[in-house]
Design goal:
With 164 residues, the protein is of the alpha+beta class. The chain has 2 domains: 101 residues, PH-domain like; 50 residues. The strands form 2 sheets. A 4-stranded antiparallel beta sheet has the order 1-2-3-4. A 3-stranded antiparallel beta sheet has the order 5-6-7. It starts with a strand and ends with a helix.
C-alpha cells in the first residue's frame, strides 16, 4: 500500500457570513451615495466600506491558510498513521492560543461526525468532528471542510486498516 498524505483546507465559501457582510457594506455605501450624491462625508463612508471589505477578504484568506486537517497513512511507518489538525489564530499573535495542533492515531479514532447548518448543507461544506478512543470526547473540530461526507469516508477507510 502506497503512503498517503492528504491535506484538507476550509472552503472559501465556508465563510459565507463574512462574504455576505462584505457585500452588504458595499451595497449600503452605494445606496447612501445614490440618494445623497455630492455629499463629501459619503466619500469617506465609501472609502471605509472598501477598507472594511479588504480587511474581511484578507481575514478569510488568512483563516483558510492557517487551518488544515491532514490524513497521514504510511503503512511502513507507525508514526505516520494519524489524522492531525492545526490552526493558527491571526487575531491573537501574542497569546498562547495563537497555534493549536492535535494528532490522533488512525487506530485510536473512535468516531467521526459531520456537523452542518442548513446553509452549510446547501453549500456542501461541514465541520468534521473526530473523537479518539482514549478520551471519548471530541478532540478535533475542523470547520467548513468541502465535501465532508467524502472526507469522513476516506478517513474511516484508512482508520479501519489499523483497528484491532
Amino acid at each position: 500500500m502506497e503512503p498517503l498524505y492528504k491535506t484538507y483546507k476550509p472552503a472559501k465559501r465556508g465563510f459565507f457570513k463574512l462574504w455576505f457582510l462584505a457585500i452588504i457594506l458595499l451595497v449600503l455605501a452605494g445606496v447612501a451615495n445614490y440618494f445623497k450624491p455630492g455629499e463629501s462625508w459619503l466619500k469617506w463612508v465609501w472609502i471605509a466600506a472598501c477598507v472594511a471589505d479588504i480587511l474581511i477578504v484578507l481575514y478569510i484568506f488568512a483563516k483558510r491558510w492557517t487551518i488544515s486537517l491532514t490524513l497521514k497513512d504510511n503503512p511502513s511507518k507507525p508514526d505516520d498513521q494519524e489524522v492531525s489538525f492545526s490552526e493558527c489564530n491571526p487575531c491573537k499573535p501574542f497569546s498562547s492560543d495563537f497555534k493549536k495542533s492535535i494528532e490522533i492515531g488512525l487506530a485510536n479514532i473512535e468516531h467521526i461526525e459531520i456537523k452542518q447548518t442548513m446553509m452549510q448543507a446547501l453549500l456542501n461544506i461541514g465541520d468534521i468532528v473526530i473523537a479518539s478512543s482514549g478520551t471519548g470526547r471530541e478532540e478535533i473540530q475542523a470547520p467548513s471542510i468541502p465535501n465532508p461526507q467524502a472526507v469522513r469516508d476516506e478517513i474511516q477507510l484508512h482508520a479501519s486498516n489499523y483497528r484491532k
